[in-house]
Amino acid sequence: MNVIKSAFSTPILIKDWSESELINARLTEIILSREGISPRVQRSNIGSWDSGKDLLEWPHEEIQLLKQRIISAVQEMTQSVTKGKYTPRPGDMLAHAWANVSRADSYRKIHNHESCTWSGVYYVKSDLVKVKSKASGNIEFLDPRMLCISTDLPGCNFGGRSTVVPREGRMILFPNWLYHYVNQVEDNSLRICIAFNVKLETLATRRRLGGMRPLAMEAQGPQVQV
């Protein structure tokens, strides 16, 4: 056998939702209204506004539609990476989400997300000026194989970056551990998105957890010295 095998690929789902003009217009109004009355939450955002992680609980029909889109994307991605062996039900999904509003000179530092199964972002508005740089407001994913940056091989993308351009109605889904950042937004730009995390609570997970107990138990009787 003579073959070159591609190993350890990293999936990134890019899904453009059609007929998103009305929902995005309404989500823009909702998010900008929240921005006007809620303090900024500091995460990896520099110069931009982040909401709390309770966005999926906001009482709006558009949020319910967004939930359905997240469920569909998670099912599509999970079916793909498991080769059709597992399709998560909505009841298997634990999730939270938050809004982000970015304007001139704002950006996001390199980061990944907390422990979960999938992380994602949905673009509500993307009025990006790209006069100074075509990268303005773009999201960039880094090669997770960190030692690849030491490879000096012309024409090879080891240790490279994968760019996704924000477009209204576009959703991106990726593993939570994948490092990424957002390039600085130019003057007169407005970029509104919703970030989210989804943890799949599978039957296998529940079975494993069923046999586990907390490490820190209330003291009962003599303490064991270790």
If you had to describe this structure to a student in words, what would you say it looks like?
This protein is an alpha+beta fold and 226 residues long. The protein has one domain: Jelly Rolls (Sandwich), CATH 2.60.120.620. It has 3 helices and 11 strands. The protein has helices at 21-37, 61-81, 203-210; strands spanning 13-16, 45-46, 49-50, 93-102, 107-111, 118-127, 139-142, 161-164, 170-175, 180-182, 190-200. The strands form 2 sheets. It has a 6-stranded antiparallel beta sheet with strand order 1-9-6-11-4-3. Strands 2-5-10-7-8 form a 5-stranded antiparallel beta sheet, with no helix packed on it.
Low-confidence stretches at least 5 residues in length (pLDDT < 50)? 217-226
| Biggest β-sheet: strands ordered side by side in the sheet | 1-9-6-11-4-3
Number of strands: 11
**H/E series:** EHEEHEEEEEEEEH
Can you name the CATH architecture? Sandwich
Q: Assign the CATH class.
A: Mainly Beta
How many strands, what sense, and barrel or not for the largest sheet?
A: 6 strands, antiparallel
Structural class per helix/strand content? alpha+beta
Number of helices: 3
Q: Average pLDDT, to the nearest integer?
A: 89
CA radius of gyration is: 20 Å
In total, the number of domains comes to: 1
What's the oligomerization state?
single chain
- Spatial gap, N to C terminus: 54 Å
Please specify the SSE layout and strand pairing.
Elements (H helix, E strand, L loop, with lengths): L12 E4 L4 H17 L7 E2 L2 E2 L10 H21 L11 E10 L4 E5 L6 E10 L11 E4 L18 E4 L5 E6 L4 E3 L7 E11 L2 H8 L16
Antiparallel strand pairs: 1-9, 2-5, 3-4, 4-11, 5-10, 6-9, 6-11, 7-8, 7-10
